[in-house]
Amino acid sequence: MSSHLRCENVTVSFGGVIACNRITLDVSEGKIVGLIGPNGAGKTTLFNVLSRFQDYEEGHVYVRGQPVDDKKAHEMITNGMARTFQNINLFSEQTTLQNILIGAHHRIGGPFSNMLWLPNSRRNERELVNNAVEIATMLNLDMELDTIVKNLPYGFQKRIELARALAAKPEIILLDEPVAGCNDEETAELKSTIQQINRDLGVTVLLVEHDMSMVMSVCDYLYVINFGANLAEGTPVEIKSNPDVIKAYLGEEDE
Ligand SMILES: Nc1ncnc2c1ncn2[C@@H]1O[C@H](COP(=O)(O)OP(=O)(O)OP(=O)(O)O)[C@@H](O)[C@H]1O
Ligand SMILES: [Mg+2]
Known about the structure:
single chain; alpha/beta; Rossmann fold; 2 domains; 6-stranded mixed β-sheet; 35% helix; binds adenosine-5'-triphosphate; binds magnesium ion
């Protein structure tokens, strides 16, 4: 199976804290891969490395086998990568539609495209808006397109983040706790949306999430990290019965 996103021996430290200690993982093309581990394990830091928001002291990151160590965060979208953030990171004074369209800005063309090819750029803009509306409809946001984001409930804002990431037409999407703080109904809805994004749009997914029932049912493969290091990897069935994982992580969540 071909590798879509891979990192090898990634090390990041903040002062004395080693957030990632030689972490290696591989996300196969077309799969939904989960990254789990206790609070402070280094999941968000690794996400920031993979999306090039964070520099690393050691290691390499590859997209489809090509090194991206020298890329900037904003260049990753031209590598087909989009992400969401653990903490909601929207323009709260703007509308749902405006926020979704921000995700598509790299599709507008060069800085002068607006001036040089006015008819074309109008058509392009219409196309982007149509696409944003399509995504909003898929995420049940179409009734709130003109609502100012800060007036919407939390679950909506989480979905707008996902919609904005999708507006970039990514080939791979990194989701950092997409259902955190959502109620059961919102979680079930987001779960099926993630499956739909993967199955219908063919987008590879890397998912960080603490909601174990969701992770276990949605992921094809899992990586577990603990104290910034690889602890285990395998299918959800393998991970559920892995004694190291139970001890370090799943044990905490015993019902
Ligand atoms: N910018 C930063 N400066 C200093 N320390 C940081 C920074 N970002 C993360 N850390 C530390 O690095 C470690 C890993 O944090 P990280 O946020 O990656 O964990 P996480 O697995 O995402 O946790 P959670 O499940 O709580 O989101 C923690 O000890 C954290 O305090
Ligand atoms: Mg985190």
